[in-house]
Design brief:
single chain, alpha/beta, flat, ARM-type_fold, ARM-like, 1049 residues, P-loop_NTPase, 5-stranded parallel sheet, transmembrane helix, 7-stranded mixed sheet, membrane
C-alpha cells in the first residue's frame, strides 16, 4: 500500500528479526551484531541498485517494536566519520517508531547526536505492554497514539484503515519536510560557501585551490629556533612591514588539518588546543578561511573524529536590530542563523540547542567570525550572551589585529594570524588565472609577463600576497596601458580603479543620451569620460574613505553610510548602488541593507580613495571636511595644514605615498614636495628622510619641473646614508625596499671602505636589490676585496630571485675555495635553491662537505638537499656526515637524506645507526628521515621498533608512524616490543580517536593504516593476545590494562 503513495522515496523498514522456533544449537546474535548487519544490508542493497553515488540522499526509517532498538544501536555505532556506515547515519533525516520501548536503550545517545534536520516521531499503542514512559522517546515532542495491539502496530487492513491513514499521512508529511528542507538547506549552504571574484565569477570553495597559510605569532613562537629565524625581512618601516605581508618562515606554518593537533602551550605543556584565536587584516581572507573550514569539514573529512558539527556564526549579526531582545540565547541564535526560513525553525533550533547542551558542546565547533565587529556597541543581555558564546569549549574566533579581547574571556590555547599567499602560491594563482577554463591551455606568454613584472618590482610582489590584491591585479592585467605596465604602486591602483569602474558602470546601468551604455562604448572610453559617468559614486567613495580613515573607521554601518551620502552624494540610492560597486564589500550580502556593514576591498583601497579626496580638495583649493563620524563633530582644515599636522604620523604613511603618486600623474609633485620640505621639520632627521624616500618611490623618473628638486632630495638622502653608516655602524634606510636604486649606486661608489662594508651588509638583509646596484657591486667580488665585504656581497646576491647571468654564478662558485670560512659559507648559500646548477658546481659544493668549518659543511648539505637527482657519490658523501662530530651537521645530513627514494640500503643503515644517538633531536630527525618508505629492510625495522621504548615520546610516536607505513611487517620485528607498541597507542587513544585490533587473518588494523603481519609459524591474533597478557603481568595496573586490551578484542 505504501509504495503507491510515496512512489520512489527512500524508505527503509526495521523490524525485530525474532523467530520463536529457533534451533537449540543456533549461536544467538547480539543486538550489536544485528545492528551491524542492518546497515551492512542497506549498504549492500544501495550498491546492488546502482545507488552508490546517491548514498547521502535523505533516508526515512520506519522501525517497529524492538527493531527501533536495533536501529538506534546502528545509528550510534555509525556516529564516527571513520565508520563505514557514517554516510548512512548522516543521510538519516527521519524516523517513525512503532511501539518501540525506548527506556534503557541507546536512545539517549541518539538524542545527543541527532542533527536538527533529523525528524523523530513515535507512534505508541494505547494498550500497555510496557509503561508509557518507556514507550516515549524524550526528544519526541508530540507522540501519536494508535488504538492497536502490540502485534498489529505495523499491520493494517487496507488503505482506508484510519490508523494506516494516520501513519501514511505522517510519512508523507515527513517526506515533504525532509525533501523541501534538504533542497532549501543545500541551496543556502552552497550559496554561502561561494566566493565572488572581482570579475563577477562565482568560485565555489571546492575550486578555491590555494590554501590560506596560518602562521603562529612570533610572541608565541619561542620554541621555533633555527635558521627560520634568520629569514630575510624588510625594514619595520617599509610598506611590506606596515601591511604585514612579509613572507614568514614555513617552519612555523600551521595548516588546517593540523590545527587541533597537540602542541606546546605557553606554559611548556603539550596540549590539544580547543580554543583558538585567528587574527588577520582586512582582505587577507578571514571569511574565506571560515568558508574553507566549513567546506572541508563537510566534503573532505576535515578534523575527522573530533567534531560532529561545525557551526559558522558571523558575529556581526548580533548587532541586527531585530535580535536586540531580552534574554537572547542559543536557541534564538540558531533560529536566526540557520532556520528562520524553515516552517519548523523554532523546533529545529531547539533540537540543535539540546544537542549542544547534552554533549556540553564537546562535539561541536563554533566558528565565531569577526569579533572586532562586535567588540564595541553591544550592551545588556546581548553583551552577556556574547561572553557566553566566546567562552564555549571548542571555538575558533577570528578578529582583526587591533581587536581587544574582553577581560572575562576564558584562556585561549592558541593564537594565530592569517597571512595570505606564499610566493609559490602566487605563481600557482597566476597560472590558473591565465588558463583557459575549457581547453585548460595556458597563456604562457602572459604568465611570463606577469611573473617578470613582479620579479622586477619587489614591493608589488609583496602586495600580491594579499589575495584580494592579487585578484584585482590579475583582473586588470589585460587593461594596462599599451605603453607598458605601470611602474609605481599608485599607477597600478589607478589602472585597477579604471578597470573596475568599467565593469561597475554596466552593473549600475548608466545611460548616455537616454540609452544604456554598452561594453564596447565603455571599453573605448577615456579615464576622464569614465569618471564623468560615475561622478556621484566616485565622490561618495572618496568622502567615505577619507572620513573613515581620518576617524579610524573601516566598517561602515547603515547610519554612517547615509550620513556621508546625505552630505556629499545625496543623489545616490545606497541600497541599490552600493551592491554594484566593486570597491566595497559586505560580509553578508543576503541580509537587509540596514543590517549590513560595508568595508573597502582592502585598507589600501580606502587609503587610495582617501588620497583622491585630499587631491580633489588640494586642486580646488577647498578645505578638507574632517567630520568625525563616530561623534558627528566636524572640523574643517586646509590641505596644507593637514599635511603639516600629519606628515610624520606613521598611520598616514601609505596615504602620503598615494598623494605623491596621484599628484605626480597630474604633474603637481613639485608643489607637494616643496610643502613637505617646509616647517615644521623633524629635528632628528631620519623620519623626514624616510617620508621623502617613501613618497619619491611613487613618483616616476621622468623629465618634468620636479627633476631638479628630485636630484637635490636624492643627494640629501645619499648624505644621510653615509652619515648613518658612519655614526651607527648600520644603515636602516638602506634596508628599506623604497630606497632608490640610483641613490644606492651613487652612495656605494663614493663611500669609504668602512662605510661601503656597512652599506653592503645592510643590503644583504634585503629580499631584493635593483639590478643596477648589482652591476655596480659585482666587480668588487674579487680576492682583493676584504673577506667581510666579499661575504656581504655573496649574501646579497643569494637573496636575488631573478635569474642572474652565468658570469655571476661562475664568480660565486669561484669563492667556494676562498681561504675564509665565512666567504665559503656565503658562497654556498648564494648558490642554494638554484635548480639549474651545472654538475661541476654541484661537485664543488659536495667537496665542501669535508670542510674544516662546521658552518660550511652544514651549508653544503642544505644546498645539496634541494636537488632531486644527485649522483651516488654525492649521496654517499652526505651519508658520511652522519658520523660528523657536530650534532647540527648530523641533523642536516639526516634531513637531507630523508624521504629520498633513491637511497641504497647502506645509507638507510647509516641513518638507522643514528637512532641510538644520545641527542633526542638527532633520534627524531633520523626517524623522520626513514618515513615515507614502505619497504624498509628488517634490520632497519628492528632498530625502529626498539625506539618504541625511547624515553622521548616524540621518538616513540615517530617510530609508530614509520612502522604503520610498512606494506608488510614481520611479527619477529614487532614481538619484542609489543608492550611498548600497545602502550604508546593506548596513551594516544585518550587524546584522539584511535583504535587497534588483531584478527585471525594475521593483520593489525588501526584507523591510521592497515598492516599485514607476516609469520609462517604464528596466528597473529593469538600471539598478540598472549604477549599482551604476559607482558602486562608485572603489576596491578599492567594486568588491568592487559585484561582490558584482551576484552577489547
Amino acid at each position: 500500500m505504501l509504495p503507491s503513495q510515496v512512489e520512489a522515496a527512500r524508505i527503509f523498514t526495521c523490524d525485530w528479526p525474532a523467530d520463536l522456533l529457533q534451533p537449540s544449537d543456533l549461536v544467538q546474535k547480539t543486538d550489536d551484531e544485528i545492528a551491524l548487519l542492518l546497515f551492512e544490508g542497506i549498504k549492500r542493497d544501495l550498491l546492488r541498485t546502482h545507488d552508490k553515488k546517491k548514498v547521502d540522499r535523505p533516508i526515512l526509517f520506519i522501525a517497529s517494536c524492538l527493531g527501533g532498538i536495533i536501529l538506534a544501536k546502528a545509528l550510534v555505532g555509525a556516529d564516527y566519520k571513520s565508520s563505514s556506515y557514517y554516510s548512512l547515519r548522516t543521510a538519516t533525516r527521519g524516523i517513525i517508531f512503532l511501539a518501540t520501548p525506548f527506556g534503557g536503550t541507546s536512545f539517549e545517545d541518539v538524542a545527543i547526536w541527532a542533527d536538527p534536520g533529523l525528524t523523530v516521531w513515535a507512534l505508541i499503542r494505547r494498550r500497555e505492554l510496557v509503561d508509557m514512559r518507556s514507550a516515549i522517546l524524550q526528544i519526541v515532542l508530540e507522540p501519536l497514539p494508535l488504538d492497536r495491539t502490540h502485534r498489529l502496530m505495523n499491520k493494517f487492513d487496507g488503505p482506508k484503515c484510519p490508523d494506516y491513514k494516520q501513519v501514511s499521512g505522517k510519512i508523507l508529511e515527513f517526506l515533504t519536510k525532509i525533501c523541501g528542507h534538504q533542497d532549501s538547506q543545500c541551496a543556502l549552504f552552497a550559496e554561502r560557501l561561494k566566493i565572488e571574484r572581482l570579475s563577477g565569477d562565482l568560485l565555489p570553495m571546492d575550486r578555491c585551490y590555494i590554501n590560506l597559510a596560518i602562521v603562529e605569532w612570533p610572541s608565541d613562537n619561542a620554541t621555533h629556533g633555527g635558521k627560520g629565524d634568520t629569514a630575510q625581512q624588510s625594514s619595520p618601516f617599509s610598506l611590506l612591514a606596515r601591511l604585514n605581508v612579509e613572507t614568514p618562515d614555513k617552519t612555523i606554518e600551521v595548516t588546517l588539518p593540523t590545527l587541533f593537533e597537540p602542541r606546546k602551550s605557553q606554559d611548556g605543556q603539550k596540549k590539544q588546543p580547543s580554543r583558538i584565536l585567528i587574527r588577520g587584516r582586512a582582505g587577507v581572507g578571514k571569511t574565506t578561511l571560515c568558508k574553507k573550514i566549513v567546506h572541508d569539514f563537510k566534503y573532505n573529512n576535515l578534523w575527522q573524529g573530533l567534531f560532529n558539527r561545525v557551526l559558522w556564526v558571523p558575529l556581526r549579526n548580533l548587532k541586527v536590530e531585530k535580535r536586540q531582545s531580552a534574554g537572547y540565547n542559543f536557541r534564538d541564535l540558531f533560529y536566526h542563523e540557520y532556520f528562520s526560513q524553515d516552517l519548523e525553525g523554532r523546533e529545529l533550533s531547539e533540537a540543535l540547542w539540546r544537542a549542544l547542551k547534552d554533549t556540553k558542546s564537546g562535539r561541536t565547533l563554533l566558528i565565531l567570525d569577526g569579533f572586532d565587529e562586535v567588540s564595541q556597541g553591544l550592551g545588556g543581555d546581548m553583551s552577556v550572551f556574547l561572553e557566553e558564546l566566546l567562552n564555549q569549549p571548542n571555538v575558533i574566533i577570528t578578529a582583526r589585529p587591533n581587536a581587544r579581547l574582553p577581560p572575562r574571556l576564558d584562556p585561549l590555547d592558541l593564537e594565530l594570524e592569517t597571512i595570505g599567499f606564499y610566493p609559490d602560491q602566487i605563481t600557482a594563482y597566476i597560472e590558473n588565472t591565465f588558463t583557459d577554463r575549457e581547453t585548460r591551455e595556458r597563456d604562457l606568454e602572459k604568465i611570463k609577463e606577469v611573473q617578470s613584472f613582479l620579479q622586477r618590482h619587489p614591493l608589488m610582489q609583496g602586495l600580491m600576497r594579499i589575495p584580494i590584491q592579487l585578484d584585482a591585479f590579475c583582473y586588470t592585467w589585460n587593461g594596462f596601458p599599451r605603453e607598458g605596465v605601470p611602474e609605481t604602486m599608485t599607477a597600478v591602483y589607478k589602472a585597477i580603479e579604471a578597470s573596475l569602474w568599467k565593469k561597475d558602470i554596466l552593473k549600475l546601468q548608466k545611460k548616455k543620451d537616454g540609452e544604456p551604455l554598452t561594453g564596447d562604448q565603455i571599453k573605448k572610453a577615456s579615464r576622464k569620460k569614465i569618471e564623468s559617468f560615475v561622478e556621484q559614486e566616485l565622490r561618495f567613495l572618496e568622502c567615505l574613505a577619507f572620513l573613515g580613515f581620518y576617524d579610524d573607521v573601516i566598517d561602515f554601518d547603515w547610519e554612517l553610510r547615509n550620513a556621508v551620502s546625505d552630505r556629499f552624494a545625496s543623489d545616490l540610492l545606497l541600497d541599490k548602488d552600493l551592491p554594484c560597486l566593486s570597491f566595497l564589500r559586505t560580509s553578508d550580502p543576503s541580509s537587509n541593507d540596514q543590517d549590513r556593514n560595508y568595508h573597502f576591498l582592502h585598507l589600501t583601497f580606502q587609503e587610495y580613495f582617501a588620497a583622491r579626496y585630499f587631491i580633489r580638495q588640494w586642486k580646488d583649493k577647498q578645505q578638507l571636511n574632517c567630520l568625525q563620524l563616530s561623534r558627528d563633530n566636524c572640523n574643517n582644515m586646509e590641505p596644507a595644514t593637514f599635511l603639516e599636522k600629519y606628515k610624520y604620523d606613521p598611520r598616514y604613511d601609505i596615504f602620503w605615498r598615494f598623494v605623491a603618486g596621484l599628484l605626480d600623474a597630474d604633474d603637481m609633485a613639485l608643489d607637494f614636495f616643496q610643502m613637505i620640505e617646509k616647517e615644521p621639520r623633524d629635528l632628528l632627521g631620519p623620519t623626514h628622510q624616510r617620508l621623502v624616500m617613501h613618497c619619491l618611490s611613487e613618483v616616476e623618473r621622468k623629465e618634468s619641473n620636479f627633476t631638479g628638486l628630485r636630484a637635490r632630495l636624492e643627494n640629501q638622502l645619499e648624505q644621510w646614508l653615509l652619515f648613518e653608516s658612519d655614526s651607527t655602524g648600520n644603515s636602516k634606510l638602506v634596508h628599506e625596499m623604497e630606497c632608490p636604486g640610483q641613490v644606492l649606486s651613487n652612495v656605494l661608489t663614493q663611500a669609504s671602505e668602512g662605510e661601503r662594508t656597512v652599506l653592503l651588509e645592510s643590503l644583504s638583509k634585503r629580499t631584493a636589490v635593483p639590478f643596477n646596484v648589482i652591476k655596480v657591486v659585482f666587480p668588487w667580488l674579487t680576492n682583493r676585496t676584504s673577506a667581510r665585504q666579499c661575504a656581504a656581497i655573496l649574501r646579497m646576491l643569494g637573496n636575488q630571485h631573478n635569474n642572474l647571468p652565468d658570469k655571476i654564478h661562475q664568480s660565486i662558485a669561484a669563492r667556494l675555495k676562498h681561504e675564509n670560512g665565512s666567504v665559503r659559507e656565503a658562497a654556498i648559500e648564494a648558490l642554494r635553491g638554484r635548480a639549474d646548477l651545472p654538475n661541476q658546481v654541484l661537485q664543488s659544493i659536495a667537496a665542501r662537505l669535508e670542510d674544516k668549518d662546521r658552518g660550511v659543511r652544514e651549508a653544503a648539505i642544505e644546498a645539496l638537499r634541494g636537488h632531486a637527482h644527485l649522483p651516488d657519490q654525492v649521496l654517499q658523501s652526505i651519508a658520511a656526515r652522519l658520523e660528523d662530530k657536530d650534532g647540527g651537521v648530523q641533523w642536516a645530513a639526516i634531513e637531507a637524506l630523508g624521504g629520498r627514494a633513491d637511497l641504497p640500503d647502506q645509507v638507510f643503515q647509516s641513518i638507522a645507526v643514528r637512532l641510538e644517538d644520545e641527542d633526542g633531536g638527532v633520534r627524531r630527525a633520523a626517524m623522520k628521515a626513514l618515513q615515507g618508505r614502505a619497504d624498509l629492510p628488517d634490520q632497519v625495522l628492528q632498530s625502529i621498533a626498539a625506539r618504541l621504548e625511547d624515553e622521548d615520546w616524540h621518538v616513540q610516536w615517530k617510530a609508530i608512524e614509520v612502522l604503520l607505513y610498512q606494506s608488510a611487517l614481520s611479527l619477529d620485528v614487532l614481538i619484542p616490543h609489543i608492550r611498548s607498541f600497545y602502550d604508546a597507542l593506548l596513551q594516544e587513544s585518550f587524546r584522539e580517536h584511535l583504535f587497534w585490533y588483531a584478527s585471525e587473518r594475521s593483520f593489525i588494523g588501526t584507523n591510521l593504516r592497515h598492516i599485514y603481519l607476516t609469520s609462517e609459524q604464528h596466528n597473529g591474533k593469538e600471539v598478540v593476545r598472549k604477549l599482551l597478557l604476559e607482558k602486562g603481568a608485572a603489576n596491578v595496573n599492567d594486568r588491568r590494562r592487559a585484561l582490558l586490551s584482551i576484552l577489547s578484542y
